[in-house]
Please model this.
Amino acid sequence: MQQLKYFLFVTIFLLCSLNAKASSDNIKAAVLAKQKACLGCHAVDKKIVGPSFQAVAKKYANDSGSTEFLKNKIRRGGSGSWGVVPMPANAKLSDADVSLLVSWILRGAPSAN
Model:
């Protein structure tokens, strides 16, 4: 019985830690999207110039290559995936920042709350 209590405690602790990390990543990604002007063309839940982040998440939800594809799209820019309006390249973003943004976008750009 003591082992079960310990196991449950550790499991709950790990789940809470993961939730805190995800919340922290959501905050960082949202701030980064604002700083890098992503929100000038994209919104979380509606189309502006480009698609909403939630529409991107839905489109690529079952695509195993989506992470690399979106990283390249952010770095290199381009057009054709969502229409003719080109997305500018963001070549100066670090790999860590691009990874953070793509991960957040593929989760549907959840709020920090």
Q: What stands out?
A: The chain has one domain: 2-106. The domain at 2-106 is CATH 1.10.760.10 (Cytochrome Bc1 Complex; Chain D, domain 2).
